[in-house]
Design brief:
CATH class of the largest domain: Alpha Beta
Number of strands: 10
Order of helices and strands: EEEHEHHHEEEHHHHEEHE
Number of domains: 2
Number of helices: 9
Distance between the termini: 21 Å
Mean pLDDT: 95
Strand content: 25-35%
Radius of gyration: 18 Å
Largest sheet: 6 strands, mixed
CATH architecture of the largest domain: 2-Layer Sandwich
Shape: globular
Length: 268
């Protein structure tokens, strides 16, 4: 069986308050790109994980990998040998590990059907995992695990992801947030929320990775409908009116910063 681990982006991310449990209260618009990592599984005597792809070498500890943790949390009559083609950069604000776990849950659902408590199991792996299991545009509240449907009028929109090849850990970025509550996520359709929203972690992330500002500045010059950082960075995204505008933007990024990672696709 084969499944794509769709890249997750936060079209908007509002940080509202620090909770008593130490986590931050979030309001976000989750979206997913029709490209990402690739998982394949086949029966095996025991669970195994093999990684390959451009960023596969960054996952050198199978016992600390979220895919293996997800396997352990899902009972099966036999082992699974999983091959993970890691195309998404690590620590990049794309929910790469969460997307991988979500893809594994979909493979499990295809074979056995998900257990009734799958959302609780997924949340234990990471706050983004429940959203990544379905990989459908939705609103996330709480720490990101309280999911709500949203009218998706952005499906099929061309999107470009750009990362300056600088890993950025989530913890320090949240710690650097200035603590100012700038208001709730706007209501309406997905496009209305995205265009009127913001990412409250951008300033903190840019203080730790100055290249994020360079990425956003370049994407703004490509004629994007919207250019914003995803999650806690350092990946930024841009939405375009059509495939031609996307291709021109991709060529422009490659010409000016040929060593930056980029991935083109469409919103699901």
């Amino acid at each position: 069986m084969i499944e794509t681990a769709f890249a997750k982006i936060n079209l908007a991310l509002h940080v509202r308050a620090l909770r008593v449990d130490g986590y931050h209260e979030l309001e976000t618009l989750f979206a997913f790109v029709d490209a990402g990592d690739r998982l394949s599984v086949q029966p095996a005597p025991r669970d195994e994980l093999r990684t390959l792809g451009e960023f596969g070498q960054h996952l050198n500890d199978p016992f600390d990998n979220i895919v293996m943790k997800a396997l352990t949390a899902l009972p099966r009559p036999q082992g699974w040998a999983v091959t993970l083609e890691k195309n998404l950069p690590v620590a990049a604000g794309l929910g790469g590990g969460s997307a991988d776990a979500g893809a594994l849950y979909r493979l499990y659902d295809r074979e056995y059907g998900l257990p009734d408590d799958w959302q609780a199991r997924a949340a234990k792996l990471g706050a983004d995992v429940p959203a990544c299991v379905r990989s459908e545009m939705c609103l996330g509240r709480g720490i990101g695990t309280e999911l709500e449907p949203v009218e998706n009028d952005l499906a099929g929109t061309p999107v470009l992801l750009v990362n300056p090849r600088m890993p950025l850990s989530t913890g320090p970025v949240f710690k650097g947030w200035d603590g100012v509550d700038r208001g709730a996520l706007p209501g309406g359709k997905a496009s209305e929320i995205a265009y009127a929203g913001r990412n409250d972690l951008e300033q903190s992330a840019m203080q730790q990775c100055l290249l994020i500002g360079e990425v956003l500045s370049l994407l703004d010059r490509t004629g994007a409908r919207i250019a914003r950082m995803s999650g806690s960075g350092a990946t930024c995204f841009a939405l375009y009116k059509d495939d031609l505008a996307l291709q021109i933007a991709s060529d422009m990024v490659r010409e000016e910063w040929g060593d930056w990672w980029q991935m083109a696709g469409k919103l699901r």
